[in-house]
Every structure is written in C-alpha cells, then in structure tokens.
Design goal:
5-stranded antiparallel beta sheet; 34% strand; OB fold (Dihydrolipoamide Acetyltransferase, E2P); 2 domains; 18 strands; 6-stranded mixed beta sheet; Rossmann fold; alpha+beta
Length: 327
C-alpha cells in the first residue's frame, strides 16, 4: 500500500488576461480529509480545483502533493483524479469499459482492465450494471460509474466538481451519504466543489470558503460554522445574522435569537415574513437601520405563541451566542 500524501496550495494564482480568478491562495489539506471548496459562482473555487487536477494552467504559485511539485505535470501523472460535473461518460462504451478506459490508455491488457473494473464496480455497487450503456442508467447510477472510473487509477486525491448538482433533491441527499461512506472506506483525500452550504456541512471535515478569488475563511467545518470571521462567511453559510450594533458588527446565530416583548429587548423589530418549514418556523423581521434578521423557532415554540406579519416584537440573545466580525 503506497504512502498517502498531503496536498498543499502555495500562493496559487490563476489569471485570465487581466482578470484574476484565483488570487495567491494557500491551504494545506491533511491526508484523508473530506474538504469542500464552498462559495458563490465566480469566486474561483472551480478554477482552483481544475488547477489541482491539471486541467487549467497555473499562472503563479504551486500545487504540491507530498514533497513533489505537481503544478506543471499532465493530469495522468499527478496522483489526482477528477470526477466532472456532467460525469463525462463515453456514450458508446458500456459501464465496464467506461470504468476501465484509463487503464486501456495505459496499455493494460483486457483481463487486467476487466478485473480492476470489476473491483471498482463492486465498491460502488454497480457490478450488475456493467454491460449497460450510460443512456440506460439513472442519474445516480451514472454518478457511481463516474466515481468508479475516477478511482480506478488509485489516486491520492479525488477531485469532485459539483458532482451532485444534476441530481434531484432526494437522490442528492442519498448520494451525499454514499460519498461520505466511500471516502471513509478508501481513506483518501476528497476535495469537493459546491455552492451549497447544506451540502458542504453534510459532507466536509474541512470547509474552504472562497469569495472574490481569495479564501475568506477555512478550517474544521464546525469551527467555521460556529464562528464565521467575516460578514460574507456569516451570510453565505446561512446560519448567522449580521447585525450592526453601536459597539460594532456582530454575527448572531439564527437559532439563538429569542422573540420577546419589545420593551427591554436588545433590538425592536417588525415581522416581515413567516415561513413554516415543518420542524421549525423561520421568522424574518426588520430592525433599525433597515437591517433584516431571521430567527429560527421550533414549531412548538412558535405555535404556542403565534405571531403575525407587521407585528412589533423584541429580539434578544445570550451574550455567548454573538461574536464580533472582522468585516
């Protein structure tokens, strides 16, 4: 069994003409971690993934795997494998031959190709579909076939470019569980690009939040979720309200806001939206400065003391539920 290697980005930069898509980012991915690059469209996360894979040239900086600079190696020589957003399966090849295609390019004989393909298809529970063409597969089955094809090269790092975006919501949740299970079984590093914070929180050991070509914040998933450092991260993760107070800008978790009488509360507010979401109710209010905040209440808490649109309320929170933001 070969030694697994850490992946590191060192001042990694991507320019398209005068446009800087990725601006000198640095990050160290530990071996065997499931990491998500998270951010809005155009933030640089896909360009970063493609530079790691070798599908985009590096303008400046480097990508290292172990002690080896892989920045300018062809994709097949890097020790990485990439699963594309559209799965990119060859329509004229059956599942077995799709999975084994990279081994054919390496000159492996048919017996070895089929043996290795069978092992990969067992891993993703697709052996019984080996003779089907991609058009005869469901979206989830196509994803599994694409995963098996990426993994057959035994990469140190698997790169996933929004792999769940084409799936319906129910299948997406099921495939999240399968991806996490597979990553734990293999023990290799997964780096997964997404713009969905729910997806990142469900999957990732580490989150790298990108915005405007830089890393806004990165670290252990729970640490980033519990303590966003900037207003952008607080808003993008969707878990915190950003509130401008006289003493400075604060992030306050939505589930930590309490609704009470206006008198004596930290902030007065006026209810502008009430959204029932099954297990909880999201109540949005406007506060001084035309700011909007959202409180997450349990359905029991809300319906024991229901509120109405336009009603004046007070908003309060415990001191430990808020922390100051850098910007």
């Amino acid at each position: 069994m070969r030694k697994q290697l850490d992946l590191e980005l060192i001042s990694l930069t991507k320019r398209y003409g005068s446009t800087v898509a990725v601006d000198a980012i640095s990050y160290h991915f530990k071996v065997g971690t499931y990491a998500c690059l998270l951010g809005p469209s155009g933030c640089g996360k896909s360009s970063t993934l493609r530079m790691i894979a070798g599908h985009e040239t590096v303008s400046d900086g480097s990508v290292t795997l172990g002690a080896r600079d892989i920045s300018h190696l062809p994709p097949a020589k890097r020790g990485t494998a990439m699963m594309f957003q559209n799965y990119a399966l060859f329509p004229h090849l059956n599942v077995r031959d799709n999975v084994a295609f990279s081994l054919k390019m390496q000159g492996k004989d048919q017996a070895e190709r089929h043996k290795r393909a069978h092992e990969m298809l067992e891993l993703v529970d697709m052996v019984n579909l080996a003779d089907r063409l991609p058009a005869q597969l469901s979206g989830g089955q196509q994803q599994r076939a694409a995963l098996a094809r990426a993994l057959i090269t035994k990469p140190d790092v698997l790169l996933l470019d929004e792999p769940l975006s084409a799936l319906d919501p129910f299948l997406r949740i099921r495939m999240r569980a399968e991806l996490k299970k597979l990553q734990r079984e293999l023990g290799i590093t997964f780096i997964h690009v997404t713009h969905g914070q729910d997806e990142a929180l469900a999957l990732a050991d580490e989150i790298v939040v990108m915005n405007n070509a830089i890393i806004e914040q990165a670290g252990a998933t729970r640490a980033v979720f519990d303590a966003p450092k900037t207003a952008f991260v607080a808003r993008f993760l969707g878990s915190h309200n950003v509130i401008a107070m006289p003493e400075g800008t604060l992030a306050v978790r939505s589930d930590a806001l309490h609704i009470k009488q206006a008198e004596g509360a930290k902030l007065p507010g006026t209810i502008t939206n009430i959204e029932y979401q099954g297990t909880h109710v999201a109540l949005t209010a406007t506060i001084p400065g035309e700011q909007e905040v959202t409180a997450i209440l349990s359905d029991k808490e809300f319906f024991e003391n229901p509120k109405n649109l336009g009603e004046a309320i007070g908003l309060d929170w415990e001191a430990e539920a808020a922390h100051a933001l850098a910007g």
